[in-house]
Amino acid sequence: MPIRIPDDLPAVAALESENIFVMREERAVHQDIRPLRIAILNLMPTKVETEIQILRLLSNSPLQTDITFLQMASHRSKNTSQEYLDRFYRRFDDIRGEKFDGLIVTGAPVENLEFEQVDYWDELCGIMDWSLTNACSSLYICWGAQAGLYHHYGIPKYPLEKKMSGIFEHRTVVRDDPLFRGFDDVFHMPHSRHTEIRSSDVHRNPHLHVIAESEAAGAGVVVSERSQVFVTGHFEYDGGRLAFEYERDSKKGMSPEMPANYFPDDDPRRDPVVNWRAHATLLFTNWLNYFVYQRTPYDLDDIGRPGAEG
After folding, report:
1. Mean pLDDT to the nearest integer, 214-221
2. Of the residues 136, 142, 191, 279, which is catalytic?
3. Per-residue confidence at 27, pLDDT binned at 50, 70, 90?
C-alpha cells in the first residue's frame, strides 16, 4: 500500500530499502483519491524502530494511507529528542477536532505501574474517549490493549510472577471473524510483558469477545462491538527485538529468562527464526480492510454519526 508520511521521516529510508511503497508528499497531492487517515499514538520509547515496525505491517494493501504520528503532551520522552517529536509528531490538542479512519495505540514500558500512576494517563483517557466518535476503528497493542480494556470496560490487569517473553502459539477461537480471514488455525505471536489480562474477565463482559487465545500466553486478541481490536502481544516486533531486550536486561544485571520458543535450541548465539511475520501482516491488512475501509464513511465528518458506516 502507498504509505503517505513526511518525506524526511527517518523511517522512509528503511522502508524503501525493503521495497515498501512510500508515497512522497509531491506525488500524493496529485492523486484524486481520499486516503485512509490513520493516527498512530506511539508510546514506545524507541520511536523510530516502532514507526518502521508498524508502517511495515500497514504496507501490504492497495489502499492508500495518510499517517499521522501522535505524541503525549503530558510526558517528556527520555529516548527521543523533543526536536524530533515536534518535527514529525502532533499533539492531541492539534487534532482534537479532526476525524480519522483508524487509530493505533502502541504498547509502553509502564506495565508495573497502576494505570492511574502513569504520568500521561488522563491525557490517554481523553484520547481513548475521543476515538469513540472521531475514529472508525481503534487497534490497541500490548499495554495499550490493557489500558483500552481497563478504561473502556473495566478489565483489570494482573502482575505475572515472571516476565512473559517469547513466541507463543495461538489458536483462533472465532474462525470466521473478518480479522482472521486467511489465517491458519494456529499462529504465533511475540509477547513481552510483565502483566496480563484474563479471559475469564473478558468473557463476563457481553460487549467483548476473545477471538484468539494461547494456552501459555492467555487471551491473544479481543474485539469489541465498537470496532475496537485489542492485541495483547507484539505482532509488530521484528526478528531481533526480543534478542535486543534479552541482551539489554542481561547487561543491567536483571538475570532475565531466555525468551521462550525464540532462539534455535535456546542458543542466544543463533539468529531467531521469524515465524509470525505473515500472520502479523495479514492481521493489519484485515484490520485496515474489514474494520476501517469497509466501515468508514467517505465523508470523514460523518464518523461518529448514527448510520454513517460505509
Report:
1. 97
2. 142
3. low
> CA-CA distance, 81 to 132, in Å (whole number)?
31
Catalytic residue at 142? yes
Answer yes or no: is pLDDT of 30 > 50: no
Residue in 49, 111, 213, 236 annotated catalytic: 236
With 80 as the cut, is the pLDDT of residue 19 above it?
no
Query: Is residue 254 predicted with pLDDT exceeding 70?
Result: yes
Catalytic residue among 152, 170, 188, 234: 234
Q: Is 236 a catalytic residue?
A: yes
Give the global pTM: 0.92
Nearest to 54, CA basis, from 71, 40, 70, 35 = 40
